[in-house]
Amino acid sequence: MKLKSGIYKITNDTLKNTEIIFDVASISSKQDGLVNHLTGEDFFYYKKYPTAEFILLEAISLKNKPLTAKGILTIKGISEEIVVPINYLLVDKKISIEGKISFDRTRFNIKYNSKSFFDNLGDKAIKNTIDIGFKLVSN
Question: Could you give the number of structural domains in the chain?
Answer without folding.
Answer: 1
